[in-house]
């Protein structure tokens, strides 16, 4: 399988650039060809947020059901989409028993994600397909940076008292600065969910603005902890505050809530991304994370992104999976693809 086949299947190329409009008109089509200008954020606009308050859960659920039912990935193209899922992955270890050795093994897996026979069978030896980043706790940043040096793989750190964000702001900012100093070029921060419950939007906005400043050149992913937020309205409003405060990505979950990434909640967030683009002209990335562990689930998410936001959101600068075990299932399915032994379920799911 060649890159050409992959690109043809995924849709028009997103790699070449045209400048974004300074400010897009409402209902502007999402760009299909773009340069990622970093989101500078904007003033907290409570009036604009007010317009986002009405979220229709059943409409979102219907849309998700129709997208996943009528998915049009043909069997021959399954491998291409699965490789795209790998390229858009933050390969993660966030466990209480993480060690430097475990992080080195994770990095080795990121550098060589597939067994040699799979690489040769798919004809991708020259393509250097690997996860976009590894994602670790702060104490392991330096180890990960050393392990992936020269590979193009980013190092993301979950800083700010992950997973709950319940430490003084000064402590959380120091953790970001320490992660950046150790070489992390992506920082995944969590919001204190209580600020959402109390509708303390200004305080949440100010906190994220300080986090963005502490990141410097490192990209900022803001984790909302959507499973904790109780309503889709809260999810929409928190998404909007994070983007207004300068988030490069908004991310669903820590993987530690009782409910993690779900498609209807993800759809609400991508609609918020669309609304922010229409208001500002800036493109924000999206990272569903937590509980995404099957190849089939990864395809559902990719289809959602392509249908709702378009081709640029199949690129790692605008889309990531946060996942600890997804790569294992994708590898298994690619192996089955080569041997022609897809499980009946999987074949059905991908038909
Ligand atoms: O941010 C990433 C998540 O913590 C990963 O969650 P997972 O272990 O359920 O894949």
From TrEMBL:
Region (Disordered): 1-34
GO molecular function, one term: deoxyribose-phosphate aldolase activity
Catalytic reaction annotation: 2-deoxy-D-ribose 5-phosphate = D-glyceraldehyde 3-phosphate + acetaldehyde
InterPro entries per the UniProt record, alphabetical: Aldolase_TIM, DeoC, DeoC/FbaB/LacD_aldolase
Homology family: Belongs to the DeoC/FbaB aldolase family. DeoC type 2 subfamily.
E.C. number(s) listed in UniProt: 4.1.2.4
Record-given protein name: Deoxyribose-phosphate aldolase
Pathway: Carbohydrate degradation; 2-deoxy-D-ribose 1-phosphate degradation; D-glyceraldehyde 3-phosphate and acetaldehyde from 2-deoxy-alpha-D-ribose 1-phosphate: step 2/2
Biological source species: Mesorhizobium qingshengii
Lineage top rank: taxon: Bacteria
Pfam families to which the protein is assigned, alphabetical: DeoC
UniProt keyword annotations, A-Z: Lyase, Schiff base
């Amino acid at each position: 399988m060649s890159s050409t086949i992959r690109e043809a299947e995924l849709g028009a190329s997103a790699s070449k650039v045209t400048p974004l409009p300074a400010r897009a008109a409402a209902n502007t089509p999402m760009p299909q060809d773009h340069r990622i200008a970093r989101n500078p954020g904007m003033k907290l606009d409570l009036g604009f947020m007010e317009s986002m308050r009405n979220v229709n859960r059943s409409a979102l659920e219907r849309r998700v059901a129709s997208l996943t039912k009528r998915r049009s990935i043909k069997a021959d193209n399954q491998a291409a989409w699965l490789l795209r899922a790998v390229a858009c992955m933050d390969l993660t270890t966030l466990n209480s028993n993480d060690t430097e050795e475990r992080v080195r093994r994770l990095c080795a897996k990121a550098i060589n994600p597939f067994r040699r026979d799979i690489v040769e069978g798919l004809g991708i030896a020259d393509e250097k397909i690997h996860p976009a980043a590894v994602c670790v706790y702060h104490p392991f940043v330096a180890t990960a940076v050393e392990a992936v040096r020269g590979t193009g793989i980013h190092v993301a750190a979950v800083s700010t008292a992950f997973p709950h964000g319940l430490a003084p702001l000064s402590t959380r900012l120091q953790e970001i600065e320490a992660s950046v100093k150790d070489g992390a070029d992506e920082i995944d921060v969590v919001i204190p969910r209580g600020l959402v419950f109390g509708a303390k939007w200004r305080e949440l906005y100010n906190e994220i603005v300080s986090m963005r400043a502490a990141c410097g050149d490192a990209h900022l992913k803001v984790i909302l902890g959507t499973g904790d937020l109780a309503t889709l309205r809260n999810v929409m409003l928190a998404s909007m505050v994070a983007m207004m405060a300068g988030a490069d990505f908004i991310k669903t979950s820590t993987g530690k809530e009782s409910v993690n990434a779900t498609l209807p909640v993800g759809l609400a967030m991508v609609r918020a991304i669309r609304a922010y683009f229409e208001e500002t002209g800036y493109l924000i990335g999206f990272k569903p994370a937590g509980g995404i562990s099957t190849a089939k689930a990864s395809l559902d998410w990719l289809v959602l992104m392509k249908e709702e936001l378009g081709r640029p959101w199949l690129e790692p600068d605008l889309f990531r999976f946060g996942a600890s075990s997804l790569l294992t299932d994708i590898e298994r399915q690619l192996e089955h693809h080569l041997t022609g032994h897809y499980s009946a379920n999987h074949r059905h799911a991908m038909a």
